[in-house]
Amino acid sequence: MKEDMTKLTQNDRVAELLGIRLAAVDIGYSLAELTIRQDHLNGVGTLHGGIIFSLADYAFAVAVNSGGVPTLAVNANISYFKPPRGPVVRAEAKVISSGRKVCCCEVEIRDDDGTPVAKFSGTGYRKTVPSKGE
Amino acid sequence: MKEDMTKLTQNDRVAELLGIRLAAVDIGYSLAELTIRQDHLNGVGTLHGGIIFSLADYAFAVAVNSGGVPTLAVNANISYFKPPRGPVVRAEAKVISSGRKVCCCEVEIRDDDGTPVAKFSGTGYRKTVPSKGE
Amino acid sequence: MKEDMTKLTQNDRVAELLGIRLAAVDIGYSLAELTIRQDHLNGVGTLHGGIIFSLADYAFAVAVNSGGVPTLAVNANISYFKPPRGPVVRAEAKVISSGRKVCCCEVEIRDDDGTPVAKFSGTGYRKTVPSKGE
Amino acid sequence: MKEDMTKLTQNDRVAELLGIRLAAVDIGYSLAELTIRQDHLNGVGTLHGGIIFSLADYAFAVAVNSGGVPTLAVNANISYFKPPRGPVVRAEAKVISSGRKVCCCEVEIRDDDGTPVAKFSGTGYRKTVPSKGE
Question: Does the domain formed by B2-126 have CATH 3.10.129.10?
Answer without folding.
Answer: yes
